[in-house]
Amino acid sequence: MGADILIFTALIAAVFLLVIFIVVRDKNVISRLAILEKVIEDLNQENHKLNKVVKKQNLDIDGGIQKIVEDEVQNRVVPLKQSLQEVRKITEEFREQHSAGDYEKKVIELYKDGKSESAIAQILGLTIAQVELILSLNDPQ
Questions:
Q1: 25 and 43 belong to one structural domain
Q2: Closest Cα to residue 136, out of 115, 123, 117, 113?
Q3: What is the pLDDT of residues 111-141, one digit of tens each?
Q4: Count of domains for the chain
Q5: Domain identity same for 90 and 102
Q6: Are 66 and 130 contained in the same domain?
């Protein structure tokens, strides 16, 4: 019976030591997890701050790109549009000044004044074929 008590006491001591080991180990693991939890929380806060900065910079970049595009439109497209409007205006004025009837009258006048077809074409900026056509349609004599 003495040996049984000794084995039983040894077994209780081993269980007690095992429980103490588990408790100490558990506290160690809990303290490390607390440290990791703190680090993760700090990283999340830093990530949030960085996301705000990146979003702000993206907005700044988008605004900058929009400003560059607007400037380029103002510097290149608007003057081009104005030039095209001027060309259109000049073209319309030219057409009004040099309508077909005006050419016909001028061609006939110049022909009656004794100018050749090639000279008339040069004076009025027409081709010889145009001068010949106008003369043939109007039959000046």
A1: yes
A2: 117
A3: 999 989 999 888 888 888 888 888 888 775 5
A4: 2
A5: no
A6: no
**Same-domain status, 29 and 72:** yes
Q: pTM here?
A: 0.36
Asked whether residue 89 falls in the same domain as residue 53, the answer is: yes
First to last CA, the chain: 159
> CA-to-CA distance for 5 and 3, rounded, in angstroms?
5
SS3 state at 113: coil
Contact 107, 135 (CB under 8 A): yes
Q: How far is Cα 141 from Cα 132, in angstroms, rounded to an integer?
A: 14
Tokens encoding 29: 């693991």
Which helix H or strand E contains 99, and what residues bound it? none
Owner of token pair 């030039």: 83
Contact in structure between 120 and 110 (CB atoms under 8 Å): yes
Closest CA to 110 of 124, 100, 120: 120
The backbone torsions φ and ψ at residue 127, rounded to the nearest 5 degrees and listed phi first, read -85, 160
